[in-house]
Automatic annotation (TrEMBL):
<dbReference type="GO" id="GO:0046983">
    <property type="term" value="F:protein dimerization activity"/>
</dbReference>
<feature type="transmembrane region" description="Helical">
    <location>
        <begin position="513"/>
        <end position="531"/>
    </location>
</feature>
<feature type="compositionally biased region" description="Polar residues">
    <location>
        <begin position="256"/>
        <end position="277"/>
    </location>
</feature>
<keyword id="KW-0472">Membrane</keyword>
<dbReference type="Pfam" id="PF07730">
    <property type="entry name" value="HisKA_3"/>
</dbReference>
<feature type="transmembrane region" description="Helical">
    <location>
        <begin position="34"/>
        <end position="54"/>
    </location>
</feature>
<keyword id="KW-0547">Nucleotide-binding</keyword>
<dbReference type="Pfam" id="PF02518">
    <property type="entry name" value="HATPase_c"/>
</dbReference>
<keyword id="KW-0902">Two-component regulatory system</keyword>
<keyword id="KW-0418">Kinase</keyword>
<feature type="transmembrane region" description="Helical">
    <location>
        <begin position="6"/>
        <end position="27"/>
    </location>
</feature>
<dbReference type="InterPro" id="IPR036890">
    <property type="entry name" value="HATPase_C_sf"/>
</dbReference>
<feature type="region of interest" description="Disordered">
    <location>
        <begin position="164"/>
        <end position="183"/>
    </location>
</feature>
<dbReference type="GO" id="GO:0005524">
    <property type="term" value="F:ATP binding"/>
</dbReference>
<dbReference type="GO" id="GO:0016020">
    <property type="term" value="C:membrane"/>
</dbReference>
<keyword id="KW-0067">ATP-binding</keyword>
<keyword id="KW-0597">Phosphoprotein</keyword>
Length: 779
């Protein structure tokens, strides 16, 4: 009968292998949590069954330990197979999409160039059209002369911007303009100073901001002012740049003219600043008037409601000319740029007008001074003032084109560096590689202690069991560091055998040290394999470790009770025999290391090739835009400059209109998709996903290379986070150990992200703000 069969007879031979096979399949096909639950259920079931059969506590504990150990190894092998399968499928997807990676990089560059064109040439042409149309409509000689001068200055700036955008020179032009883009809040002052709209009132109380934030703030103000110039008929446009605690707040509101605005004298020279509202500093007590630098404007160019209406409607068809250039791309792009700086941009109706607000975090920024009665912060209107070349040149030059990033690296628009935050779930917890090492430790302890408890021939005392348990655990623990420190781990494991031998000689245990060495020799062989994997071509450490294992084993076995005669000779013979499996384990590790090195080299070469193809695609897009700009926008801008120099404002308007039409065609072409609905699963594909979803992707801790498996997994994570969303914010944190992706996720996406992290051997963390983090370790 089954109940008459002793546990030591059938359980070790039947139950553990059957459980191991079932749990291996479970760990291979399901997540770590499900497989771990299976391990727990089976282990408890074995223990309950043994107790029900009336076995003594020792054999029950031994059977339970053996079952847990075998189950843990089966779980670890299944997890390893699951990770290998995920990496293999990811590598296949990476290689299958290699052809589309260059196209994706090219499309990302097209969108970047479109944004640059929108933020530079389109704004310049718009200003020229609005100013020229207004001046021609009002038929004021002074205003027309001013418009001609502004058009000439704007055309020169635009030519330099277009040259920098494509890295070319204007047709027949001279040297490229190498002036830096806006890097300080003072550039906002000059921007408003030269703005062709008399309705603008401007105040700045913020002292400074980091250059990256100042550049984006410049773009926000310029885009909002341009939109107000196009669409806001009449009324006022109020711009405020303020610092509230540790945040920079930019507000632009347009709306109907108030009683206070209407009552303001139009010819009061003290109210017509260039837009520069000085920030009171320690030694500053008063605002500086624009009149100290430029003569006052004629009264006809004051705050005339007719001029405001003409400016916004662009007079002779000007408004019709500038419509259709944005299509929502300007504010959408700004939302992304602001989010990449860690800020928030909002735009919408406010009362009878429209408001645009942007907030940026300021780290380590000086506190904004508190306005005092002696040094008030004054809200001053901008006027259609003569351009001040020094100011206009510095303020109007946008940042140069972003550097071309290889396809193997993340592609993103420029953003301020973000310090890498701590990554929750790093190393994957009990789902990743360290858990496999822990499973080996458990198996080693269960293997030695379990069989000792199952032995019925020699009962063990409680003290002997405690001593052996300590030594067995000490011998197994080095497996936990086999990947990071195999040589010290091997030395620690070997040190247990002399201690056990001494305990046997002292009579503290009946367990022969030689029997334990043979029974647990697989631990040393596993560590020798790890030495070979880590050492690679370095043969001396591996050869020394192999000889040490053989010598230690020969010594322990020669001192055993079964050896008679010359123990030294016996030890030498035994050591020679042990050297064979030891050398084989080390050689296997060396072979695996060389195979992995060849695979890494092949993968790196493939990534370099894709990077070069991406660079070539980017250069091709820039060359194509260069040719188009030469024949359209640059030629038209040169014609505008020539007409302005001749004083022909009507020709200036006509050429500017033609330039706007050409830009509209260029923008439509650049924004048209090239890659299909499925971007390649690479970092370049992430940049394309962000562009299509108007999302902000920030790279914390710098941009680093990643293996194809991590690239594909990171792309999948971003794709799941962005599915069905626009304007989301994603943070990618990379270092040598892996990549973390943080962003919002729907409940359905959460389930798939958990499975993705599990298959990669990584971790998943849900945060209180509704975002999640997926950790993808390198292997």
């Amino acid at each position: 009968m089954l109940e008459e069969v002793p546990m030591g007879g059938w359980a070790p031979a039947v139950v553990p292998p059957a459980v191991a096979a079932a749990l291996y399949v479970l760990a291979l096909r399901r997540t770590a949590g499900v497989a771990a639950a299976g391990v727990a259920v089976v282990t408890v079931a074995v223990a309950v069954t043994a107790l029900a059969l009336g076995e003594r506590p020792g054999p029950v504990a031994g059977a339970t330990l053996l079952t847990a150990g075998c189950a843990a190894v089966a779980w670890a092998l299944g997890r390893s197979g699951r990770r290998r399968r995920a990496r293999r499928l990811a590598l296949e997807a990476y290689r299958a999409a290699a052809g589309a990676a260059a196209e994706a990089a090219g499309e990302v560059e097209r969108h970047r160039l479109a944004a640059e064109l929108h933020d530079t040439a389109a704004h310049r042409f718009t200003g020229i059209v609005v100013g020229a149309a207004s001046a021609l409509r009002l038929a004021d000689p002074d205003l027309q002369a001013r418009a001609v001068r502004d058009a000439a200055e704007t055309a020169r700036l635009a030519e330099g911007e277009l040259e920098r955008l494509t890295g070319v020179r204007a047709p027949g032009g001279g040297a490229q303009d190498e002036r830096p883009g806006p890097r300080d809040l003072a550039d906002l002052d000059a921007l408003v100073a030269a703005w062709p709209d008399p309705r603008v009132t401007y105040v700045r109380t913020a002292r400074s901001a980091p250059p990256e934030i100042a550049a984006v703030a410049y773009r926000v103000v310029r885009e909002a002012l341009t939109n107000a110039l196009r669409y806001a008929e009449g009324g006022t446009v109020r711009v405020a740049v303020e610092q509230a605690a540790d945040r920079l707040v930019i507000t632009l509101v347009d709306g109907p003219t108030t009683t206070q605005d209407a009552a303001q004298p139009s010819d009061d020279s003290t109210s017509r600043h260039s837009g520069t509202t000085p920030v009171p500093g320690p030694d500053e007590t008063a605002a500086t008037s624009r009149d100290a630098r430029t003569p006052p404007l004629p009264s006809a160019v004051g705050r005339s409601p007719g001029l405001a209406g003409a400016g916004t409607a662009a007079g002779l068809g000007g408004r019709r000319d500038v419509e259709g250039l944005g299509g929502g791309h300007g504010l959408a792009g700004l939302r992304v740029a602001v989010a990449e700086c860690g800020g928030v941009l909002s735009a919408g109706p406010e009362g009878a007008g429209w408001a645009v607000r942007a907030e940026f975090p300021l780290q380590d920024a000086p506190s904004a001074p508190v306005p005092s009665a002696s040094a008030p912060s004054v809200s001053v209107p901008s006027a259609l003032a003569p351009s001040v070349p020094a100011l206009s040149a510095s303020a109007a030059s946008p940042p140069g084109p972003a550097a071309v990033v290889p396809a193997a690296l993340p592609l993103s628009v420029s953003a301020p560096p973000v310090s890498a935050p701590p990554v929750p779930g790093r190393w994957g917890g009990w789902r990743g590689g360290p858990a496999s090492n822990g499973a080996l430790v458990l198996f080693a302890v269960a293997w030695s202690v379990g069989f000792s408890l199952l032995a019925d021939d020699v009962p063990l005392s409680a003290g002997e069991v405690a001593l052996l348990a300590v030594l067995f655990v000490a011998h197994a623990l080095p497996l936990a560091v086999r990947a990071r420190a195999p040589l010290p781990g091997l030395a620690a494991a070997l040190s247990v055998h002399p201690v056990l031998l001494a305990a046997w000689f002292a009579g503290w245990t009946t367990q022969p040290a030689g029997d334990f060495f043979l029974w647990c020799l697989w631990v040393e062989l596993t560590l020798l394999y790890a030495v070979g994997v880590q050492g690679g071509r370095r043969w001396r450490p591996g050869a020394a470790a192999t000889a040490t294992v053989a010598a230690a084993g020969g010594l322990v076995l020669a001192c055993g009770p079964g050896i008679v005669g010359d123990r030294a000779a016996a030890g030498a013979v035994l050591a020679s025999g042990l050297a064979v499996p030891a050398a084989a384990a080390w050689a296997l590790g060396v072979g695996v290391a060389r195979l992995r090195a060849r695979r890494r080299t092949a993968t790196r070469d493939e990534q370099v090739r894709l990077s070069r193809e991406a660079e070539a695609a980017v250069r091709a897009e820039r060359a194509r835009l260069e040719a188009r700009l030469r024949s359209s926008a640059l030629r038209r801008m040169g014609a505008v400059l020539a007409a302005a120099e001749r004083g022909r404002l009507d020709v200036v308007l006509a050429e500017a209109r033609a330039g706007l039409a050409a830009l509209r065609e260029s923008l439509d072409e650049l924004r048209s998709p090239v890659v299909g609905d499925d971007p390649p699963p690479t970092f370049a594909g992430i940049a394309l996903l962000a562009t299509r979803h108007q999302a902000a992707v920030r790279y914390a801790g710098g941009r680093r290379e990643a293996s194809p498996g991590v690239e594909v997994a990171a792309f999948t994570a971003v794709e799941l986070m962005l599915r069905g969303r626009t304007g989301a914010e994603i943070t990618v944190t990379g270092d040598g150990a892996g990549t973390a992706v943080r962003g919002p996720a729907s409940p359905r996406a959460v389930r798939r992200l958990r499975a993705l992290a599990d298959a990669a051997g990584g971790g998943f963390t849900a945060h209180e703000d509704g975002t999640v983090t997926v950790w993808l370790p390198e292997t």
